[in-house]
C-alpha cells in the first residue's frame, strides 16, 4: 500500500513527536520563557503513539523519526522504541535529540532498535553554545555524540545557521565531516519563535554553499528514497558529507515525502501549514478509521508552503510543540 498525495508525491515518512518538553531553550525553537507545559492527559500515551505508527506503516510509511521537544526526557521511551522498531514494514527508525542525555542512553537506544540519530550542534564554542541553547552544556553533547559513534550509529549533525550569531562557524563545523562519518547539515533559520526582524538572521543556503565551496571541493550526492530535505555533498577524501536545508529561500516542497503528528495527536501535512487534523477521535474508533484519517491528511497536503523572506509576518509557533 502507498500513500500518495494529490500532487503525486509518495508519502513514506512520519515525524512522530512524543513530548513538547525539553531540557534546553534553543532560541530558534521556543521563547526564552519556554512554552506552557502540557498536562499528562494532553499528551498521547505510548500505546496511542504506537497505534499511530502502526497505522502509518500499514498505509505505506517506511520511515519514522521520533522527535520532541527532547524525546529522551520522556520516561519509558526505550520500551516504546523497541515496540516501534518491531513494526512489520518499517525500514528506518530514527531519533532526533539535542544530545544532552545521549552519553548514557546511546547503548540502550541502539539495543531498542533505533538505527540513526540526528543531533543538534549549533556551535563548537562552549559559551556561544550556551547562549544559543540558553544554558546548554556543549561538553555533554559532544560526549553524547562520541558515545553514539562508539555504538556505530550513523549520525547527522544539524546546525541552524544564524547571521551574526554562529554563521562564522560554518566552515569549522563542516570540518567535522573530514575525519568522522558524520552527515553535517546546515539549516536556514526559520521564524518559528516569532522573533522580530527574523529575516536579518537568515543566511541563505546558496551563501552557505558558496562559503563551503571556497574552502572545500564539493560533489553532489544523489538522494535516496527515504532521504530528508537536504542537498547533500561529498568532500573528496572525507569520511562524511555536508548538506544544506533551505526551507526559506529554496523550498523543497516538490520532493516532500513526510507528514507529522504532534505529541497531542494533531496530524499535520506541512510544518508551515495552519491545517491539522486531531487524531484523538479516530483513536477511539479503531485502526480502520485511524488509517483513513492519515489518508485524509495526505490528501489535504498543500502543493507548497508560503514561508519566504518576503513574508514579513509568518505565524509564530514553538517548534518544540510540533516536532520540527
TrEMBL record:
Keyword GTP-binding attributed: yes
GO terms, biological process: Mo-molybdopterin cofactor biosynthetic process
Binding-site residues, [4Fe-4S] cluster 2: 253, 256, 270
Name this protein carries in UniProt: GTP 3',8-cyclase
Residues where GTP binds: 15, 65, 96, 156, 258-260
Key words, A-Z: 4Fe-4S, GTP-binding, Iron, Iron-sulfur, Lyase, Metal-binding, Molybdenum cofactor biosynthesis, Nucleotide-binding, S-adenosyl-L-methionine
Top EC group: lyase
Annotated function: Catalyzes the cyclization of GTP to (8S)-3',8-cyclo-7,8-dihydroguanosine 5'-triphosphate.
GO-annotated molecular function: 4 iron, 4 sulfur cluster binding; cyclic pyranopterin monophosphate synthase activity; GTP 3',8'-cyclase activity; GTP binding; metal ion binding; S-adenosyl-L-methionine binding
Catalysed reactions, semicolon-separated: GTP + AH2 + S-adenosyl-L-methionine = (8S)-3',8-cyclo-7,8-dihydroguanosine 5'-triphosphate + 5'-deoxyadenosine + L-methionine + A + H(+)
EC number(s) from the headed UniProt entry: 4.1.99.22
Domain Radical SAM core residues, every copy: 6-219
Gene name of the record: moaA
The protein's required cofactors: [4Fe-4S] cluster
InterPro entries: Aldolase_TIM (IPR013785), Elp3/MiaA/NifB-like_rSAM (IPR006638), MoaA (IPR013483), MoaA-like (IPR040064), MoaA_NifB_PqqE_Fe-S-bd_CS (IPR000385), MoaA_twitch (IPR010505), MoCo_biosynth_MoaA/MoaC (IPR050105), rSAM (IPR007197)
Record: residues binding S-adenosyl-L-methionine: 28, 69, 120, 190
Pathway(s): Cofactor biosynthesis; molybdopterin biosynthesis
Complex formation: Monomer and homodimer.
Pfam families in alphabetical order: Mob_synth_C, Radical_SAM
Family to which the UniProt record says this protein belongs: Belongs to the radical SAM superfamily. MoaA family.
Disordered: annotated span: 303-324
Record note on cofactor: Binds 2 [4Fe-4S] clusters. Binds 1 [4Fe-4S] cluster coordinated with 3 cysteines and an exchangeable S-adenosyl-L-methionine and 1 [4Fe-4S] cluster coordinated with 3 cysteines and the GTP-derived substrate.
Amino acid at each position: 500500500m502507498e500513500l500518495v498525495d494529490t500532487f503525486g508525491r509518495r508519502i513514506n515518512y512520519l515525524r512522530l513527536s512524543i513530548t513538547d518538553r525539553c531540557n534546553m531553550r534553543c532560541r530558534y525553537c521556543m521563547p526564552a520563557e519556554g512554552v506552557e507545559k502540557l498536562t499528562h492527559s494532553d499528551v498521547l500515551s505510548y500505546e496511542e503513539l504506537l497505534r499511530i505508527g502502526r497505522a502509518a506503516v500499514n498505509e505505506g510509511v517506511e520511515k519514522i523519526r521520533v522527535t520532541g521537544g527532547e524525546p529522551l526526557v520522556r520516561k519509558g521511551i526505550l520500551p516504546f522504541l523497541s515496540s516501534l522498531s518491531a513494526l512489520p514494514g518499517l525500514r528506518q527508525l530514527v531519533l532526533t535529540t539535542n544530545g544532552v542525555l545521549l552519553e548514557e542512553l546511546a547503548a540502550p537506544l541502539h539495543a531498542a532498535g533505533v538505527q540513526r540519530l540526528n543531533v543538534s550542534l549549533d556551535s563548537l564554542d562552549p559559551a556561544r553554545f550556551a547562549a544559543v541553547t540558553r544554558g546548554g552544556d556543549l561538553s555533554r553533547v559532544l560526549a553524547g555524540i562520541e558515545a553514539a559513534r562508539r555504538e556505530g550509529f550513523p549520525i547527522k549533525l544539524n546546525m541552524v545557521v544564524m547571521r551574526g550569531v554562529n554563521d562564522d562557524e560554518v566552515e569549522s563545523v563542516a570540518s567535522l565531516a573530514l575525519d568522522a562519518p558524520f552527515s553535517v547539515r546546515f539549516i536556514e533559520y526559520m521564524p518559528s519563535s516569532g522573533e522580530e526582524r527574523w529575516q536579518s538572521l537568515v543566511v541563505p543556503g546558496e551563501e552557505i554553499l558558496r562559503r563551503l565551496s571556497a574552502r572545500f571541493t564539493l560533489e553532489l550526492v544523489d538522494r535516496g528514497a527515504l532521504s530528508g530535505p537536504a542537498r547533500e555533498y561529498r568532500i573528496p577524501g572525507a569520511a562524511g558529507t555536508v548538506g544544506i536545508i533551505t526551507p526559506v529561500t529554496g523550498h523543497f516542497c516538490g520532493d516532500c515525502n513526510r507528514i507529522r503528528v504532534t505529541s497531542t495527536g494533531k496530524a499535520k501535512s506541512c510544518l508551515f501549514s495552519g491545517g491539522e487534523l486531531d487524531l484523538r477521535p479516530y483513536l477511539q474508533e479503531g485502526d480502520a478509521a485511524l488509517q483513513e484519517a492519515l489518508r485524509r491528511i495526505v490528501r489535504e497536503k498543500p502543493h507548497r508552503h508560503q514561508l519566504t523572506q518576503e513574508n514579513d509576518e509568518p505565524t509564530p509557533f514553538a517548534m518544540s510543540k510540533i516536532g520540527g
